[in-house]
Write a structure and sequence with these properties.
Elements lengths: L2 E5 L16 H12 L4 E3 L28 H6 L20 H19 L5 H9 L1 H16 L10 H4 L3 H10 L1 H27 L3 E6 L8 H5 L14 E5 L9 E6 L3 H6 L3 H13 L2 E4 L7 E6 L9 E4 L3 H11 L4 E3 L7 H10 L3 E4 L24 E4 L8 H7 L2 H11 L6 H13 L5 E5 H4 L29 H13 L4
Parallel strand pairs: 1-2, 1-12, 2-3, 3-6, 6-9, 10-11, 11-12
Antiparallel strand pairs: 4-5, 4-7, 7-8
């Protein structure tokens, strides 16, 4: 069965008050997808964002982003008033994260204070069920607030090293603040699962996204330092990234701490099993970012300013995924297997039987011809997911403007188009990926809207100006819906 879907982050929804959230706009978007006969809605990680606003650098692998909580529902509950709400039209076209940081948490705190949630049975049950991660997260965030939101690397040594006597005093001292963070997670996940249930009612499945790595400044690393490559002073020994290539002369320095895979192996990968179980419940399909890192991961000395001096180390390989499957059964996973792939990582993807990803833009990139051929649609395999581009790519219209003449020539020849009209190119590219043998076809909404690079979601290896684009409600037209439905029905992807 061949299927199709749309990639759109929650933050990009046309909700009121400055950022997409789990409000009426989210339900209306599901209706829009259902009417267009789309099977999937792919989102980006739901995690609470920190420095750089990236959903791939979160304070927790389990905590949801409080910005996505519907303020209208808090108002309906009587926890905040209509007078408390921001202007509806504020920041409609781009997310202003600095504004949200300054204003949204004040509203959420007021809602918490007015909710008297401590005696609510649902809240009590949720807090007990999720205590295995929520207690450490709530304490982490409460302490972080106490120390002016500094990274835990700069907290007092006894807290950094988790002296249990000190932590016990902190839990007592910060119990009210900890409950505030539990409250936000309870509301977030209650609203999310309600939205997911509605998506299922409308025959739309959710593709979630989890990064391979977690941020150093996270409750995950602080509460489980033994699972990461940290020294005796709990500072990273080495960090993650990718080496120099045709796209970046100095590579990419991500800065995430690396796993101690030998320690994970001794626990039969229980931390990863818990993480995947959580993702299985939250989503219908799980896209795992940077799948190559499970075969071999790139290790960069901590403190380096570029990725030039890194080297490859062996990852856990198939053993990790066998352990996950033995505990959780066969999961619906998409392996993000992009970039230069060795024979061993190709074999890992094949052994796991997960579909890999195909990016149409990569097929015509003259800077890196080593693997480009596998991205040409006539070479796709059925067990794959095809995209025009991802959140890390240019929009298609932006890409048309930026590619070299030799690449434009190759594209036109492949599409059998003589015209220089970018609109015609895009229509032909959409038809091309829809007609491919790939089982799933996912299109970023920006490409349906024929947006230029002003709507690009992220430029890798840059800080600032990313994750901001939002769609306007008036852009989700009947004509657009009909165009999507026609493509889907023409190529029988429903």
């Amino acid at each position: 069965m061949r299927e199709s879907g749309v990639l759109l982050p929650i933050s990009a929804l046309p909700s009121n008050y400055g950022i997409g959230c789990f409000d009426q706009a989210a339900y209306q978007f599901i209706d829009f997808l259902s009417k267009a006969k789309q099977t999937y809605w792919q989102i980006l990680p739901l995690g609470i964002t920190g420095y750089g606003d990236s959903p791939y650098q979160s304070f927790s692998t389990y905590a949801g982003n409080p910005y996505f909580i519907s303020l209208d529902e808090l108002c309906e509950n009587g926890w905040i008033s209509e007078e408390d709400l921001p202007e509806k039209d504020i920041h409609k076209e781009e997310v202003d994260y600095a504004y949200l940081y300054e204003h949204r948490y004040k509203l959420l705190r007021k809602a918490y204070e007015n909710s008297h949630i401590e005696n609510d049975e649902g809240f009590i049950s949720y807090s007990k069920k999720n205590a295995w991660w929520l207690d450490d997260y709530a304490l982490f965030m409460a302490i972080k607030s106490q120390y002016e939101n500094k990274s835990w690397l700069f907290w007092p040594q006894d807290i950094r090293s988790r002296d249990e006597n000190v932590l016990a005093k902190k839990r007592e001292e910060l119990s009210y603040e900890m409950n505030y963070h539990r409250f936000m997670q309870y509301i977030f996940w209650t609203q999310w699962y309600r939205l997911k249930k509605y998506a299922h009612k409308m025959n739309v499945a959710i593709i979630g996204d989890i990064p391979i790595y977690v941020a150093f400044d996270s409750s995950d690393v602080w509460s489980h330092p033994e699972l990461f490559q940290l020294d005796e002073d709990v500072k990273p020994e080495a960090v993650a990234g990718v080496p120099p290539d045709g796209f970046s002369a100095t590579g990419q320095l991500w800065g995430n701490p690396l796993y101690r895979w030998d320690v994970h192996e001794k626990t039969n990968y229980e931390w990863w099993i818990a993480r995947m179980a959580y993702a299985r419940d939250a989503y219908d399909v799980v896209r795992i970012d940077h799948f190559r890192g499970f075969d071999e991961y790139y290790s960069i000395p901590y403190g380096d300013e570029t990725a030039v001096n890194g080297h490859w180390e062996k990852g856990p390989g198939l053993a990790l995924f066998k352990a996950i499957e033995s505990k959780l059964g066969k999961m619906n996973v998409i392996a993000e297997d992009l970039g230069y792939l060795t024979d061993s990582v190709k074999q890992l993807v094949k052994d796991c039987q997960y579909p890999g990803m195909k990016i149409l833009q990569f097929a015509f990139d003259s800077r890196d011809s080593s693997g480009a051929n596998s991205y040409l649609p006539h070479n796709y395999i059925e067990n794959s997911v095809v995209y025009t581009g991802t959140h890390d790519n240019e929009t298609m219209m932006g890409w048309f403007d930026s590619i070299l003449p030799i690449e434009k020539k190759a594209l036109k020849e492949y599409l059998k188009i003589e015209s220089d009209s970018h609109e015609e190119w895009l229509d032909a590219c959409l038809a091309l990926v829809f007609s491919s043998v790939s089982r799933m076809c996912i299109i970023p909404l920006q490409d349906y809207l024929m947006k230029d690079n002003s709507a690009r979601m992220n430029t890798p290896n840059t800080l600032g100006g990313n994750w901001m684009w939002r769609v306007l409600q008036e852009e989700l037209t009947e004509a657009l819906n009909e165009k999507m439905k026609k493509l889907t029905t023409t190529y029988h992807r429903y």
